[in-house]
Specification:
Order of helices and strands: EHHEEEEEEEHHHEHHEEH
Structural class: alpha+beta
Number of domains: 2
Largest sheet: 4 strands, antiparallel
Number of helices: 8
CATH class of the largest domain: Mainly Beta
Strand order of the largest sheet: 1-2-8-4
CATH superfamily of the largest domain: Jelly Rolls
Distance between the termini: 24 Å
Low-confidence stretches: 9-16
């Protein structure tokens, strides 16, 4: 795993950390469509409208806030390329990571209806982000109500993922928590076309894993070493290789129902 970056300086999407970039490529726009197609139907006309959405593209470095708790954003963030997380900072500075997000996802879609951010969203790698105004999203939903239903379904699946994480934090062992997360991330990355069989990018540190799973960094390190020695899982600097899908799935007691990937399939 990579070295831990500084903890999320607060720099808005219009701040100096963000560098304007070239328009999104067809492949980058296509990841959002693949994500939506994994949870529902997208017509040719709806796909064309999604591909034509006005997007302001900016590059963010690793470890920067995209939007911070207390902000009132007028746009949503599509991850074109990169990795991000939602998180909360406690008053004494301790961090709880609430969720991880991959290319093709819009992790702050709820800001369309919840005006003030109750958590922060930050990058976990150098990332290319596309910002879509709320006005443009509302116009898209007005023209294509079924796309609005897919966005609503996506936020409901977010809630299902939160419930599954709560079960993990409350009742699973450290080995199960890590194994379950690795199974989940494989299917989510696979849905946007970025997994190669049982290998996928995961540019996060052991500290970030610990902050997400309620473990110490030392414990995370021991579990990862144990899973590698047992021939179940290998985590390298920026990627994960699941060495034995059936064993890790059994260890994690992993049931993908909560992801509601109606068109998806297990590896």
């Amino acid at each position: 795993m990579r070295a831990a970056p500084p903890v999320f300086p607060t720099i808005s999407a219009s701040g100096s950390a963000a560098v304007r970039s070239a328009p999104p490529s067809p492949a980058e726009r296509g990841r959002l469509i693949r994500k939506l197609e994994s949870i529902g139907d997208v017509s040719a006309e709806e796909e064309a409208a999604l591909r034509e959405l006005p997007v302001q593209v900016r590059n963010f470095p690793d470890g920067r806030d995209i939007v911070a708790e207390g902000d009132r954003p007028a746009q949503c963030c599509l991850i074109l390329d990169g990795f991000a997380c939602r998180y909360r900072l406690l008053p004494e500075g301790r961090r709880q990571i609430l969720s991880f997000h991959v290319s093709g996802e819009i992790p702050d879609l709820q800001s369309l209806h919840l005006k003030t951010m109750d958590h922060s969203l930050g990058t976990l790698s150098d990332s290319k982000l596309g910002f879509i105004s709320h006005a443009d999203l509302r116009e898209l939903i007005r023209r294509f109500p079924r796309v609005g239903s897919l966005f609503w379904r996506d936020t409901l699946i977010d809630a299902a993922i939160f419930r599954e994480w709560m079960v993990g934090l409350g009742r699973r062992t450290a080995h199960q928590r890590i194994a379950h997360l690795m199974c989940e991330m494989l299917l989510r990355v696979k849905a946007v076309g970025l997994a190669r069989e049982y290998q996928y990018p995961l540019p996060i540190t052991q500290t970030e894993l610990a902050d997400a799973l309620g473990l110490t960094v030392v414990h995370v390190n021991r579990v990862l070493r144990s899973l590698r020695e047992d021939g179940i899982l290998r985590v390298d600097r920026n990627s994960v290789s699941i060495l034995d899908w059936e064993r890790i799935r059994k260890l994690a007691e992993f049931n993908p129902l909560y992801l509601h990937q109606d068109k998806g399939s297990l590896p």
